[in-house]
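Lab notes, practical 5.
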Amino acid sequence: MNTSVHPSSPSRGQVSVCMASYNGSAHIAEQIASILPQLQAGDELVIVDDASTDDTVDTVEAIGDPRIRLIRSAVNRGYVKTFEAALTASTGEFVFLSDQDDVWLPGRVDAMVAALGQADVVASNFGYFGQAPRRIESIRLRSSDSSRRWANLLALWIGVRPYYGCAMAFRGSARNLILPFPAFLVETHDQWIALAGNLKGSMVHLEQNTLNRRLHENNTTPKKARSLSQILRARIMLARAFFVALKRIQRGKSAAAGS
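Output from the prediction step:
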């Protein structure tokens, strides 16, 4: 594990960390404790709580850090809508996604902000603790593949490119491409963000581990092989998302040309 601390640059721009929480009181305080030391005074940790029934909200409020913006959802909407709400509420120049139960490694923010100097979207590698990962979760990103957008898109569509939201960040200037999520997107918001970044030709892979994922019985990521019907539905959804992203990219180019 990398334990070196890299001081933040005062000129790096505002960072927004976006977290979706739901019944996460067992681990959320440890995750927040790994995030806050990497944030500056003007940064923010936006937490949208998806109507938790445990004491997650009380745990977050007890931390008492002014950089935390806690938004409570009146009804449970699921993790995709909750992440979308957190990203939409963010204001930073650099937007990070965060799960509620992992642990960030020191230097993560600075390393990923530096990578975003080359692209709109960055995805890093990560380690594990708690349980052993599935074989597919042990696949790692290679920096040499960053510019291979069509290969990345094909591998993403097949389901063998390890783009996980917890290990991703994007430039705030990419909000109009990424948000809102397509209305039909009911899972894999991280695949959507990676799809948009790759299709635009503005995706970078960071080979170093920037966090440790906690594997436990309540992870959202499926632990068993999916049925054929589930796989087909997911592939169709990503194919539809491809055309949504393509339309947004073309609209952005037209707007830039007309300005």
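Observations recorded by the TA: The CA atoms of residues 31 and 103 lie 5 Å apart. Confidence is low (pLDDT under 50) at residues 1-8.
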